[in-house]
């Protein structure tokens, strides 16, 4: 994994935390420019995640003799344990302390569908969401993994086109024929393809540049995000997200060797899964004590960061290694490098 991408992934995770802080405590009503950025623009962290996913999956499979079965099992070992753990924790909290999740209701069928990454209307009545609300993005991730696994059956040079066609069929033709959920009919799914394209360009050595160019790219991307436009999300936030990813990749020489940035990136998945639970607990405390949300915010940040650190090492990393051995997934054979 590129350290620069790890840093950007960590940044995206914490931007989402800020976005959900504004939603949890202020219902996304901003009272100053900083609050506005997180309340109105913080959701772009998800778009950055999707672009990074496409990049990482492409680079992780580009020169390896990897079967679809091996790929899916490795993705399951990496993604599922932590997601299931925090989903079950959410279920227990809803059952024992329902006032912490006043808008949520626990239903067995919905909980099971959530664990299986199947789209279902939330019992609370506010849309298609799993029990662990932030897990809606993982429904897209798992769909992308399945389609990319199919693309592994064709030569590497054709994978981008195969995944593009499969995404279009699954997300647009499928819902029209009632074969897949309307939930997937969102243009942000094509942000995964942006990441794949970035990976292809990176492997061609096209991201070597002086520092001023990627820094300019970051400034332009942030300006585009702040300004916004009345266009589809894949253009409004997807294109700036892709520009951010490309710019950070160009800055890789300045990130190499940074253990701290790598650690932040490693913990970002647990930050994403854990933070909503912490924020809801903070809201419960604020509701019972009347203290300012901004006084509870540092506590939420510390609890999320420390919890994510231990979650990565004790839950994610440990279960990933055990499941890989249990699944019998060996390290794939590295092939000679191919041009794309």
TrEMBL record:
Keyword check for Acyltransferase, yes or no. yes
Q: Which GO terms describe its biological process?
A: polysaccharide biosynthetic process
A GO molecular function annotation here is: acyltransferase activity, transferring groups other than amino-acyl groups
Q: Does the keyword Transmembrane helix apply?
A: yes
Q: Where is the Acyltransferase domain?
A: 4-310
Q: Which UniProt keywords apply?
A: Acyltransferase, Membrane, Transferase, Transmembrane, Transmembrane helix
Q: Which GO terms describe its cellular component?
A: membrane
Q: Where are the transmembrane segments?
A: 42-62, 83-101, 134-153, 160-177, 183-202, 211-229, 291-315
In Swiss-Prot or TrEMBL terms, this protein is called: Acyltransferase
Organism listed in the record: Pseudomonas extremorientalis
């Amino acid at each position: 994994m590129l350290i620069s991408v790890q840093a950007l992934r960590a940044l995206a995770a914490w931007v989402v935390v800020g976005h959900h802080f504004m939603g949890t405590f202020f219902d996304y009503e901003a009272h100053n420019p900083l609050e506005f950025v997180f309340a109105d623009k913080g959701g772009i962290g998800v778009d950055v995640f999707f672009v990074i996913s496409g990049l990482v999956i492409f680079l992780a499979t580009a020169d390896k003799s990897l079967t679809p079965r091996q790929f899916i099992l490795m993705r399951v070992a990496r993604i599922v344990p932590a997601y299931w753990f925090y989903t079950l924790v959410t279920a227990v909290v809803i059952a024992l302390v329902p006032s912490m999740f006043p808008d949520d209701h626990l239903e067995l069928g919905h909980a099971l569908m959530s664990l299986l990454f199947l789209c279902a209307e939330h019992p609370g009545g506010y849309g298609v969401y799993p029990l662990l609300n932030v897990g809606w993005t993982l429904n897209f991730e798992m769909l992308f993994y399945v389609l990319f696994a199919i693309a592994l059956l064709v030569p590497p040079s054709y994978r981008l086109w195969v995944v593009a066609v499969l995404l279009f069929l699954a997300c647009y033709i499928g819902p029209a024929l009632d074969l897949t959920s309307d939930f997937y009919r969102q243009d942000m799914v094509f942000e995964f393809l942006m990441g794949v394209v970035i990976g292809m360009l990176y492997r061609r050595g096209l991201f070597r540049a002086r520092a001023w160019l990627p820094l300019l790219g970051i400034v332009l991307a942030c300006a585009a995000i702040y300004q916004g436009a009345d266009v589809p999300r894949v253009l409004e936030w997807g294109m700036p997200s892709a520009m951010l990813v490309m710019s950070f990749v160009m800055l890789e020489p300045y990130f190499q060797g940074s253990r701290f940035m790598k650690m932040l990136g490693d913990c970002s998945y647990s930050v994403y899964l854990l933070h909503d639970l912490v924020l809801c607990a903070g809201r419960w405390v604020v509701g019972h004590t009347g203290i300012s949300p901004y006084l509870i915010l540092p506590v939420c940040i510390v609890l999320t960061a420390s919890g994510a650190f231990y979650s990565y090492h004790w839950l994610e990393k440990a279960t990933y290694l055990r499941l890989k051995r249990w699944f019998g997934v060996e390290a794939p054979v590295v092939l000679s490098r191919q041009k794309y």
